[in-house]
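Morning run. Coffee first, then this:
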Amino acid sequence: MDNDRKEALRILEERIGYVFSNGTLLDTALTHSSFVNETQSTGHVDNERLEFLGDSVLQLIISELLFEKFPAAHEGNLSKIRASLVTERPLAEVAHSFGIGQWLLLGRGEDGSGGREKHSILANAFEAIIAAIFLDGGYQKIRTVVATIFHPLIERSEEERLYRDAKSHLQEFCQASFKLMPQYALVNEYGPDHDKTFEIEVTIGSIAKKRGVGKNKKDAEQQAATKALEAFANDGCKSR
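And here it is:
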């Protein structure tokens, strides 16, 4: 790797938040097979082996982060959140946010066909970078990097998931934890007929009661269920 390439990769290191001891690892993580095939360079190895390792390392770290953050969540829900974070599209979006495409070594054909923006290439390169950091600095280093990068994504994913299907999640949680079904009741509605607001209360036996408000009953129920789930997560099922 020449000095110009080293200087260029320092910018990426700054963005990612990790400086390599062995810069060749990062260079390899950014080398697509098309580049090696076209150049027949003896000095380059493609990133496919690093991608293989990085996929497993990333899965482990994200699983660990989710396990710690959501102690009340069941395996199925944790799997859904993890899948929303580590599949091709979200990984490509993370890679794109760092501008990884500009540092990729691609064959002329792949480069000419828009390879620097392809989700599959970007996601694979990101996984390869994860493996490169793991090999260069060890597990704690890469865990810190991943936790920093994915923290806002985990927060957003959980908020979106809870709102999108809070009623189903609350029902699963209550059946598994208390052998009870949540009960929803309309407690208030106000406003003119063309612009009503509804207030719904969800009750879980004598364990919890939460209210939600919405412009229709469905939204109010979802909000009530979300509040109940948040209370269980924060209070360890002590909400009343």
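The first helix runs from residue 3 to 16. Good start to the day.
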